[in-house]
Amino acid sequence: MRRLALFFDGAIQKLSGLSLCVAAAFIGLLALLGAADIFGTSILGAPVASALELSEAALAIIVFMGLAQAERRRAHITVDIFSGRFRGWAAKASMGAALISAMLFFGFLAWRGYIAAEQSVLIDERSAGQSAFPIWPGKILLALGAFAAMLEALRQFVRLCAGCSDPSESAGGLS
Amino acid sequence: MTEALYTGLIAIALLLCIAGLGVPIAFAIGLVGAGGMYLTVGVTYTIITFQSLPYATASEYAFAVIPMFVLMGAIAAASGIVTELYGAVNRWLEGVRGGLFMATTVASAGFAAISGSTVVNAAMFTRIALPEMMRLGYHKGVSAGCIAAAGTFAALIPPSLTFVIFGILTEQSIGALFMAGILPGLLTAAFYIAFVPLMVRLRPGWAPPTIDTSTFKEKFLGLKGLWPMLALVFIVLGGIYTGITPPTAAGALGAVGALFIAIARRRITTSGVWDSFKQTAELTSVLFILIISGLLFSRFLVISGFVTDLTDLVINSGLSAEGFLVVMVLMYLVLGMFIDPLSMLVMTVPFIFPVVVGFGMDPIWFGVILTKMIEIAVITPPVGLNLFAVVSASEGRVSIGDMYFGILPFVAIELIVLLILILFPIISLYLPQTMM
Q: Rounded to a whole number, what is the distance in Å from the CA of B339 to chain A's nearest CA?
């Protein structure tokens, strides 16, 4: 059982890291696309085809693929003026409440995102731009990103229940 | 009081309680908004909103301005542009008593023009400027206060994340908001510089006697360090002002420009670039989840009738627009003692903004005033965010007690500037009105 838990712990962390790498690659793409489009439009008189629609799809991928790692690093903004003073069981309860709310939020987002992606695939939803490329991959990645973030919150919650002082740590610290 | 007002007030109180327990603001706002929608208009509307709003928000081209400006700031910071900027300004001002306060102010304003985050700005100058100030015998509390206060220029001088998020939440032009922030930002910097000689005259112990060690040639050659920053400012703000580039494209151009400059000058490694990309992606996710949650909450407040009833209540209460502004200033000063600026923005704008419009105030001008109030809030003790950013980045050199003392002169200057901006809206509105 412990080995299985350790396996999932490591796998979810790898998934978070991998998702962030995808998001980071799209950050580079978004910057290059935006710059190339403005350069093409202003200097060469030839904009990049469907640059706007591609940028929109890239932005959605960045937002949702970066979520799991943000959750892993507890980067979401928290008002810790009271909770920062909690010790012992109160600190654990506060952390538990934060993780349960994260699971609920991301779970709901993943669930509705999955439904939206399914409908998008069924109708082969495409962008309204010049080259009409499919936008359902972006919607699938939304659902996947939110699901990965939910799994990351679940991983931390299990570690919290298992008595780890810092549930966001790597698998080696699982007691 | 109407039922809608009760519902909204209960939701806001619940939100504050959940957030106070340590639940991240984004989840607290999103879940209270979803719960409120479910109770007010039922399950169908709630799930349809959750199904459509997140993707629609995250795939809006205009909002891509956020990652682009974050990336530009990250690359500029990683490539040493800021250190050079500070060095160049410092050489010119080292012959003036209190020159390092002025140099920090000028360089912070310069960095603010390529970075949108007040905390990043404050933390960066704590590492660059504070050791030098302390080595030369400047008062550590006032030095730290100057750095924390000057860090807030990033909220007003474009590209400002505060303006972008305000623009998204209120559907105002981000380009116009950027332009509106320039003169108030420069005015604040000018006030800081003008007050430094007065401060060191009244309190000579705050700054040591001058030591001008650089020759004119060294000062002149040091100006070379300014060109990367000036080039980026020219590309970004010039493009937006002239209308050649929309803010998103200007951000992309700025980010790629910063990257080219850093690579051409061999100031960044491949891993540095990749780290900047990853850092930007993570921050983008955090900011967008906050925005999406804010929009969910906002939608709940609108459909529950709270916004309409609150606007009617405030406008018919006999409170004047000026009285309303005074209440706003006090509210944001108090809130800013406990809540970080972006969360404060997302939590309050959905119900404050309709009242502002109801009073007939200019939305762009109000955006500037709101940003200024938030700016003051993040440096107001006991819990200003920038104060903690500086204390933690100082690695034990400055205590929070030193900081509380040192920030007070700058809070006073900020309040004077706020009053001027309220009395003379043209300072904020001149550039947006002349924008092409």
A: 6
User: What average pLDDT values come out for chain B (436 residues) when binned by 10 residues?
Assistant: 88 90 91 94 92 91 88 86 83 85 90 80 84 87 94 88 90 92 95 93 88 79 83 86 86 92 89 93 92 90 88 85 87 76 83 90 94 88 78 82 91 94 95 83
Residue in chain A closest to B285 (alpha carbons) equals: A63
Report the complex ipTM. Answer: 0.92
From the first residue on, what is the mean pLDDT of each consecutive set of 10 residues in chain A (175 residues)? 82 93 96 92 84 91 95 84 82 94 96 94 83 87 95 94 71 39
The ranges assigned to domains in chain B are 63-434
pLDDT in tens, B175-213: 999 999 999 999 999 999 999 999 999 998 898 887 767
Global confidence as pTM: 0.85
Question: For A94, which of B22, B251, B284 is closest by C-beta distance?
Answer: B22
The length of chain B, given as a count of residues: 436
The CA–CA distances, whole Å, from A50 to A35, A46, A47, A140, B245 equal 14, 12, 9, 20, 17
Q: Give, as one character, the DSSP assignment of residue A164.
A: -
Q: Which residue has the tokens 């109801």?
A: B358
According to DSSP, the residues that pair with B31 across neighbouring strands are none
Any A CB within 8 A of B334 CB: no
Positive or negative, the CA dihedral B405, B407, B411, B413 is: positive
Where exactly are the structural domains of chain A? 2-170
Could you say which residues from 45 to 74 on chain A have a Cβ atom under 8 Å away from some Cβ of chain B? 52, 55-60, 62-67, 69-70, 73
